[in-house]
Specification:
Blueprint: H1 20-46, H2 49-68, H3 74-92
């Protein structure tokens, strides 16, 4: 087993190999996260008070997830593709 490099915060298994299917699914997941961030940003600007704060916090969570997501994070990519389209539909139908 490979020892973790103290200068690299990612665990060694995250450097695993990936293929074209992984890359395609990763791209779809990133696109979905982008759509969620965009929808939440628009809605939070149109709202006030606690609701706007809640929407901005959710936007930040998706933006952070997008930033740390890697092509080899297969389980997380699969979870995004399975679960997040429903949230995007809710947001685009203005049901935050």
């Amino acid at each position: 087993m490979m020892d973790q490099d103290p200068t690299n915060p990612r665990p060694p298994d995250r450097d695993a190999e990936w293929d074209g299917t992984d890359a395609d699914q990763f791209g779809r997941a990133v696109h979905l996260l982008n759509e969620l961030v965009t929808a939440l940003a628009a809605l939070s600007r149109a709202r006030a008070g606690e609701e706007a704060e809640r929407l901005r916090a959710e936007e930040l969570r998706y933006a952070q997830q997008r930033q740390r997501l890697r092509v080899v994070d297969r389980a997380e990519v699969a979870q995004i593709l399975a679960d997040y389209p429903a949230r995007l539909r809710d947001l685009t139908q203005h049901r935050p």
